[in-house]
């Protein structure tokens, strides 16, 4: 036995892979392929090839490449290789390593926020993801509430931009949309497990679920708030990542929820929550100046292939059926994301605008007779509300979590989730002019009376939380 152990130890010290044969007691050594940098070093040692300078440059470039990957993902174990596996599994490996917490983290967070004394709240730190566009519904609402706190309570908001090495790039966007926030501090947090650059504040907000993890570990605040704008476990298939998202609802933060459905969802996980009803910018989204005469029917399609919750596959399948029936009588417009028509089999069927300036979206919606927006989470999304406010007929899917706002045949048309069912509802809504007029009259009334006053909604939740 001692001899066998000695053979194993000696084999383990050699380079290459070893295999132990139980019958013969022989340890066989097989060579393994070396990393690219090691191979380059071996060739350089020979020193006889004219490509020596070229190899040196390659080796240095290789080292820089590896360094960039490690710095860009500081908390990831370098030995984890994900480029040969399913993208969803790769994402799960990344998040499983990057986003972690212990029972002690939960305890320390609760202790830090248990003392409610300390005078009035004067500062707030918001943990936010990298900003795609400050005018997008979720981001717009975050900055709107931060501006409201500054304007009505004198609370100065600063922003920790997670997984970003340059936060200042967003300042001009924020200042243009919300001038009161123009002097806010923008703090880059490339590693969400290193929060040393963030000074103490009175209040801490998390937004997208991944930002709840740094807020959990940041105990330099007296109050922690979850600014919840969707049920984000539904952004992923049931599995590791969706479970990590759901776990954040048990961190013990007080939640301010965008809609009553999200409030109920958060409370179902044992949390305390208040909610506001989303409102709209009536200067941009209104029914005035709609074109009265058009040569074609016009349908807006909220197409986002990279956002699973918007059911892009069913939407495009329905579009092909709609065009088969209506042909050139209908023009289909899409916006909300950048994608290639030909890759999804609808080349020539849709006019795609991609990302649009905020002010122009209202003009686009007013030019449409109807809008198709599919949503598979617990939030109705902003585009259907904006379409309704602009006088377009909203066609969306049956969703029990959105029954509080959408009533089939009253202020919208609801469809079952099959391509044929969607196509039938869209064709009905486009071709039945009397039905469309009746429903849009009611939906304009609903948006005007129930979704046009941000201040009253934000005042209500602020008084409940602070």
Q: Would you mind describing this structure in some detail?
A:
The protein is of the alpha/beta class and 466 residues long. The protein has 2 domains: 102-279 and 457-465, Rossmann fold (3-Layer(aba) Sandwich), CATH 3.40.50.11090; 297-450, 3-Layer(aba) Sandwich (Rossmann fold), CATH 3.40.50.2000. The protein has helices at residues 2-13, 36-46, 52-72, 87-98, 103-112, 137-153, 171-177, 212-217, 240-247, 260-268, 312-326, 358-366, 382-389, 419-431, 433-450, 454-465; strands spanning 17-20, 27-30, 123-128, 156-162, 186-189, 203-206, 223-228, 254-258, 272-276, 297-302, 330-335, 351-352, 370-372, 393-397, 413-415. Strands 5-4-3-6-7-8-9 form a 7-stranded parallel sheet, sandwiched between helices. Helix 2 (36-46) packs antiparallel against helix 3. The longest helix has 21 residues, at 52-72. Residues 1-20, 22-27, 29-34 and 62-78 have low confidence and may be disordered. Residues 1-54 are annotated as: Disordered. Residues 298-425 form the WsaF C-terminal domain.
- What is the number of helices? 16
Low-confidence stretches: 1-20, 22-27, 29-34, 62-78
Shape: globular
- What's the alpha carbon Rg, rounded to whole Å? 28 Å
The first-to-last residue Cα distance is 71 Å
What is the makeup of the main sheet? 7 strands, parallel
Total number of β-strand segments? 15
Residues in β-strands, percent = 15-25%
Query: Could you say how many structural domains there are in total?
Result: 2
CATH topology of the largest domain: Rossmann fold
CATH architectural group of the largest domain? 3-Layer(aba) Sandwich
The level of helicity is: 40-55%
- The CATH first-level class of the largest domain comes to Alpha Beta
Q: Helices and strands: which structural class?
A: alpha/beta
**Mean pLDDT, rounded to whole units?**
87
Side by side, the strands of the main sheet go 5-4-3-6-7-8-9
Protein name: Glycosyltransferase
Biased composition (Basic residues): 1-10, 20-32
Pfam family, one: WsaF_C
InterPro entries: WsaF_C (IPR055050)
